[in-house]
Each structure stands twice: as C-alpha cells, then as structure tokens.
Amino acid sequence: MISLIVKIVTVPIVLLLAMFMTDNIEYGAMWQPLLIILLLIGSGLALEYALLNSENLWTSVALDLITAFIILYFISNMLEGAYVSFGGALVVSLILGVCEYMLHRFLIRSKNVDKAPA
User: Fold this and answer.
1) 103 lies in a domain?
2) Mean pLDDT of the chain
C-alpha cells in the first residue's frame, strides 16, 4: 500500500513538471499524460510485486527504469499529437529510477517486501 501511495504522488508530479518545464515532452490531449501515468504506476507495481525482494534491489530498479523509458518514449510517441524526445524520456526515466531506488530501499529495510508472496 505504501508503494501505491508513493507512486500515485511521485509519478504525476515528475511527469507533469517535465511537461510544463521543457519542450521535450508534449501531449496533444489531456487524457494522454493520464494514460501514461497509469501505465507507469501499473507497470511499477507489477514489477515490484513480481521481482522485488531483499536480494535484487538493483535488478528491480533497472527494470523499472527500462520500463519507464519504453513507456515514455515509444508508447507516448504512438499517441496522436504527442511528442517525447529521446533525451526527455531518458531524463524522466532516470528521475523516476532514483525515486524507485529510494522506495525499494525503504520497502526492503522496513521488511514490507518480505510479506509479499513474490
């Protein structure tokens, strides 16, 4: 539950700040960033549930970073009127990766991941 709450707060903030502070990320309609936010949150939660344990912190963070980049760059650019540059997707993915690292480290230290059946 902690992970969901953190993702619901951090992912929209990071993406919306990137949209409004740079020309590297633009969406043609208001539903498009909402879709991307939902995809990022859903994929992050699925990867945490499936992979995260106390032994593979870096693997989980790396997969989160790669997944975020794929969603931001490839899926966003498939949407009509949307544009995400390679550099924009990379920077936002790295920022989300840092957030994921801190969240995963917290979850492992607080023993919240050992309770999951993964």
Assistant:
1) yes
2) 89
